[in-house]
């Protein structure tokens, strides 16, 4: 038996092609499905600097809070539930917790609290959960998923008290936590924040001007090569395949043109799907202006250590992987959307 | 999945070298490591089992694991290289001072004995020479049932090209017999440069014939299983364990006044 090295881990890519003018297009619902967004990168060909309206959208992404050593039972606090969770506008994710090593927590805007625990922690907690789908021979990872808006989890209810006791006394789970509130109102979080060490962060925006960029024809290029090329541009990898460089043998796909200049902007932090929707609208307006190049690409990356994948399903990390999607928009309101997932068990919408 | 562990860092008298090893391991992302004292008894002269040095003597401040907030955990391990049946004395009191116990058998009979009889946690497969015997399914399955794991170390492969061939050949041979169960991959590193990160070792495991998930388990869950197995070795059926308390405390309580109590009548 020799090792089968030609087989690489399977990934899944869903390609969607439609037009914004078609009323049945599903872009908004698809964009909403990726809850925890780490980075948004935009590639604007033949552009030196972003227009002021585009700049203002980049700079107006909702800021988020980092709470250090938050005990997780605080997320079940009555006031916090009333003012933030029941309104359906809080995103939260544990920070600096590895999905395959540590216990991770995620709070979704629909009121769903998900905990991914290792075996010892799950047995200590004493709340019902199920084994992870990504377990191999032995069950070493468990998932506890609770709908906080459900009547059984109302404060004072049996399920609520059981989970609260579990998190308070049996398993004192404490992690750094990233929290974001929409729409841009942090007042309801102040009560929670005032009790712990917290800091507010604005998403980091970075701009890069690229010159003499070789690019493929976006309409005729096949999805995999196009996404590889987009990734190479984003990661600043040279695509010349020169003999002096042994690090990269990436080559730009065929049927290519050379752009004089291009602008690459990326925003990173805990970002909200709502802000991504606004950016898409703004980019559509930008594309309506008469100009030479007629396409724009937007790539949205999820967190590698996120608990949840597309639509709230479980995200496992065998070797490593992010969920991401790439939206290629054209001048004539048509678009191509490529949705990808790291593991082959969940399917993007 | 559990945290990443490297259960074989060779002990050396040089304190800075050991400190570098542990710091590199913490930087690479390992949460638990074990310092390995190799003991090779020879028939000629009587040798004593080395005593483990306390960790706080060897390394001052334990470094924090990269990406987490806990310091790295350092354990002690003893490896007995057996070339004769008398080399490993079961239930020897010197073995109790170590957290983990491993044997490296050199003949088929010793391998069979180690798999089925001896009370050890890890069986090391030699990677520096061609395997002197073939693996048979029966002792390997027996070891798997008992919870004993097989260890493949990769630092020799980094040092020398010939060792690389032996490592891969021996490892593939082992995987054919054990089907990827109960295997751990460890470094046996002498220097900090011979350590590799956990994800690189997962890829290396695939070269040895392990599947993706088996390979990841060999660096995390199986190692956790070894630690639990080692803890229960010192207990009675894994339920009760005894701990020696200080002698001074006993003396004090004997001296303090206790009211005279009736003795129970022996019937």
What labels would you give this structure?
heterodimer, A: 349 residues, alpha+beta, 2 domains, eight-stranded antiparallel sheet, seven-stranded antiparallel sheet, 8 helices, 15 strands, globular, B: 267 residues, alpha/beta, TIM Barrel, 16% strand, RNase_P_Rpp40 (chain A), Ribonuclease P/MRP 40 subunit (chain A), ribonuclease P activity (chain A)
Can you walk through the features of this model?
Chain A has about 350 residues and is an alpha+beta fold. Helix content of chain A is about 20%, strand content about 35%. Chain A has an eight-stranded antiparallel β-sheet. A seven-stranded antiparallel β-sheet of chain A has the order 1-15-14-13-2-12-11, sandwiched between helices. The longest helix of chain A is centred in the C-terminal third of the chain and has 16 residues, at about 275-290. Chain A is globular, with a radius of gyration of 22 Å. The mean pLDDT of chain A is about 85. Chain B has about 270 residues and is of the alpha/beta class. Chain B is built from ten helices and seven strands. Chain B has a seven-stranded parallel β-sheet. In chain B, α3 (about 110-115) packs parallel to α4 (about 135-145). Chain B is globular, with a radius of gyration of 21 Å. The model of chain B is unreliable at about 250-260 (pLDDT under 50). At the A-B interface, loops of A face α6, α7 and α8 of B.
Average residue pLDDT of chain B: 85
CATH superfamily of chain B: Metal-dependent hydrolases
Q: How far from one another are the termini of chain B?
A: 56 Å
Shape of chain B: globular
Percentage of residues in strands of chain A: 25-35%
Task: Please state roughly what percent of the residues of chain B sit in beta strands, choosing from under 5%, 5-15%, 15-25%, 25-35%, 35-45% or over 45%.
Answer: 15-25%
Average pLDDT over all residues of chain A = 84
Helix content of chain A: 10-25%
CATH topology of chain B: TIM Barrel
The low-confidence runs of chain A, each spanning 5 or more residues with pLDDT under 50, are none
